[in-house]
Amino acid sequence: MKRAILLCVIFAAFTASAGAQGVGFGVQGDFVNFNLGVAQTSVQIPGTTASIDYNSLFKQVYGLGYGGGIHFDVNLGLIAFRISGDYIMLSPDKSKYQTLLGSQFTVDGGRIDIYSGNVNLKFNILPLPVIHVYLTGGGGIVELKMNDATLSYNGVKLPFTIKAFDTQTQPTLNAGAGVDLKFGPIALFAELKINFIMTTGKTSSEVPLATVGVTF
Predict the structure, then answer these.
(1) Labelling 204: which of 59, 139, 160, 166 has CA 20 to 30 A away?
(2) Average pLDDT, stretch 104-124?
(3) pLDDT-above-70 percentage for the chain
């Protein structure tokens, strides 16, 4: 699935570039605050008096994630299309696991991997010689994968894993704004977007705290 997303992004970029005034290629880094939408499910941990509410778990244990990707810009004057592929990783805060479940618990694993491919429209609202302020919005497809998290209670590994969802591929929508700083053939950019992933159960939201990159 991950290779398919990347191949689709690259194919779409070269297809769209046929009638464009200019095509740029670049890389970006992503920093996100992730709110995973899962159904309100409470699960009893075998052999203990503790239980897990998955909705509370993800609000408290997961937060800041990071990653990066590549993009193609297809320029058509005041508007442009950005075709991008990204990978973002979120790791749980193990100390927050202990705060939530109890100090006698230790947790291993539980990483969340997010692979995405998107096509966005960029509309320049302030096309100055160096600074271009733009609005952006679009959609794409996302693959979410969560590794099993294993629990130990007072040093003894429990026959219990934490996994709120299976690997799934879902559509995504996003909207936001950004700015390009153009220096000859090179442009630096920063943007802020809100992304909605249509996950099973509840819609997840992914709010980039910073997406920065360079386009050549």
Answers:
(1) 160
(2) 92
(3) 82
Q: The tokens 């075998």 sit on which residue?
A: 46
Cα(174)–Cα(195) distance, integer angstroms: 4
Q: How far apart are CA 46 and CA 22, in angstroms?
A: 60
> Where does residue 195 fall: left (phi above 0), alpha (psi -120 to 50 degrees), or beta otherwise?
beta
Is the sign of the CA dihedral 32, 38, 44, 49 positive or negative?
positive
| Burial status of residue 196 (CB atoms within 10 A of its CB: 0-12, 13-18, 19 or more) | middle
Residue 77 falls in which region: left (phi positive, over 0), alpha (psi -120 to 50) or beta: left
* H or E element in which residue 105 lies: strand 105-109
CA 105 to chain centre: 29
**Per-residue model confidence (pLDDT) at position 7:** 46
Amino acid of residue 204: S
Q: Which two tokens stand for residue 212?
A: 């920065």
pTM (global) more than 0.90 = no
58: DSSP letter? H
Tell me: pLDDT of 88 over 90.
Answer: yes
Report pLDDT for 125: 95
Say how far apart CA 68 and CA 29 lie, in whole Å: 4
Tokens 């939530």 belong to residue: 100
